[in-house]
């Protein structure tokens, strides 16, 4: 299958043919992970309702949860105003992060923020 032209025309793919895809949990709004899609991965996602990404390291498509069971069922897909990022609202089963945590952005990964007020 091929991504419908009315969608493909709105995408602004990188020089590698990819677009950032952010997965957000439907029930809580929590940001779960960032992955990459090309037009084919987006088409597969839209047709199946299962989050399908492009693995840059393996050079192949992967359906989230296909081997781990940590499935992402997609409720909604939105394209940002520039066409270079996608927001997937998903129902997440199990951890979203490959490290085994629920989110790839959990509190243990918070970076210290120094504001001008902190320096006084």
TrEMBL record:
<comment type="pathway">
    <text>Amino-acid biosynthesis; L-histidine biosynthesis; L-histidine from 5-phospho-alpha-D-ribose 1-diphosphate: step 3/9.</text>
</comment>
<protein>
    <recommendedName>
        <fullName>Phosphoribosyl-AMP cyclohydrolase</fullName>
        <ecNumber>3.5.4.19</ecNumber>
    </recommendedName>
</protein>
<keyword id="KW-0368">Histidine biosynthesis</keyword>
<keyword id="KW-0963">Cytoplasm</keyword>
<feature type="binding site">
    <location>
        <position position="84"/>
    </location>
    <ligand>
        <name>Mg(2+)</name>
    </ligand>
</feature>
<keyword id="KW-0479">Metal-binding</keyword>
<dbReference type="InterPro" id="IPR002496">
    <property type="entry name" value="PRib_AMP_CycHydrolase_dom"/>
</dbReference>
<dbReference type="GO" id="GO:0004635">
    <property type="term" value="F:phosphoribosyl-AMP cyclohydrolase activity"/>
</dbReference>
<keyword id="KW-0460">Magnesium</keyword>
<feature type="binding site">
    <location>
        <position position="81"/>
    </location>
    <ligand>
        <name>Zn(2+)</name>
    </ligand>
</feature>
<comment type="function">
    <text>Catalyzes the hydrolysis of the adenine ring of phosphoribosyl-AMP.</text>
</comment>
<dbReference type="Pfam" id="PF01502">
    <property type="entry name" value="PRA-CH"/>
</dbReference>
<keyword id="KW-0862">Zinc</keyword>
<feature type="binding site">
    <location>
        <position position="80"/>
    </location>
    <ligand>
        <name>Mg(2+)</name>
    </ligand>
</feature>
<comment type="subunit">
    <text>Homodimer.</text>
</comment>
<dbReference type="InterPro" id="IPR038019">
    <property type="entry name" value="PRib_AMP_CycHydrolase_sf"/>
</dbReference>
<keyword id="KW-0028">Amino-acid biosynthesis</keyword>
<feature type="domain" description="Phosphoribosyl-AMP cyclohydrolase">
    <location>
        <begin position="33"/>
        <end position="105"/>
    </location>
</feature>
<feature type="binding site">
    <location>
        <position position="82"/>
    </location>
    <ligand>
        <name>Mg(2+)</name>
    </ligand>
</feature>
<keyword id="KW-0378">Hydrolase</keyword>
<comment type="similarity">
    <text>Belongs to the PRA-CH family.</text>
</comment>
<feature type="binding site">
    <location>
        <position position="104"/>
    </location>
    <ligand>
        <name>Zn(2+)</name>
    </ligand>
</feature>
<feature type="binding site">
    <location>
        <position position="97"/>
    </location>
    <ligand>
        <name>Zn(2+)</name>
    </ligand>
</feature>
<dbReference type="InterPro" id="IPR026660">
    <property type="entry name" value="PRA-CH"/>
</dbReference>
């Amino acid at each position: 299958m091929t991504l419908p032209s009315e969608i493909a025309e709105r995408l602004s793919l990188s020089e590698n043919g990819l677009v950032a895809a952010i997965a957000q949990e439907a029930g809580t709004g929590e940001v779960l992970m960032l992955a990459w899609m090309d037009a084919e991965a987006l088409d597969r996602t839209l047709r199946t309702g299962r989050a399908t990404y492009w693995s840059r390291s393996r050079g192949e498509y992967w359906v989230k949860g296909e081997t781990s069971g940590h499935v992402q069922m997609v409720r909604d897909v939105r394209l940002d105003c520039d066409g270079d990022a996608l927001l997937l609202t998903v129902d997440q089963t199990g951890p979203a992060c490959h490290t085994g945590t629920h989110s790839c952005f959990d509190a243990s990964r918070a970076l210290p923020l120094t504001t001008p007020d902190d320096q006084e």
